[in-house]
Structure formats: structure tokens, C-alpha cells
Specification:
Elements (H helix, E strand, L loop, with lengths): L1 H8 L3 E2 L3 H6 L9 E2 L17 H11 L18
Length: 80
């Protein structure tokens, strides 16, 4: 566990372009990530492309102008 924590502490934070990551088309919207992987990171598949809906969802979540309202019964995972 100590080795994992030291790996996580040494990760360098970067800000890649969300569009480049999710659709290989630059969007100008930057997201936080890490420069290198650690032992807890799954092996990336360079041929994998995110579906357009996933890219649009990520861009929507990053937009500070849009509000997200969650509702449902207690215990369903929505914040109080």
C-alpha cells in the first residue's frame, strides 16, 4: 500500500484537451489528468475511440453554465 501511495503522490498533473482525448479532434476545453500512468492504471488501448455521445457528455459536464439537477428516492445515489 505504501508503494501505491508514493506512486500516486509522485504523479504529475497535466491539462490535456478533452476533445483530443475523447474524439481526436481538439475542442479547446482542457481537463485535468496525469502525465504518466502508475501500477493502478489499466493498460490503455490506443485504437479505442469514445462514442460521440460520451464526448458530448464530458464536454457538457465541464460547462459551468449548465446546471445538473438530480432527484430520486433517498439512497439512490443523488446528493442531498
Amino acid at each position: 500500500m505504501t508503494d501505491t501511495l508514493s506512486q500516486l503522490d509522485s504523479l504529475q498533473v497535466i491539462a490535456p484537451d478533452a476533445g483530443s482525448l475523447f474524439s481526436r479532434q481538439p475542442s479547446g476545453r482542457m481537463i485535468k489528468g496525469f502525465a504518466t500512468q502508475c501500477s493502478q492504471t489499466p493498460t490503455p488501448d490506443p485504437s479505442y475511440l469514445f462514442h460521440d455521445a460520451m464526448r458530448e457528455l464530458v464536454v457538457w459536464f465541464m460547462s459551468p453554465a449548465d446546471v445538473l439537477y438530480l432527484y430520486g428516492p433517498t439512497g439512490s445515489g443523488n446528493p442531498a
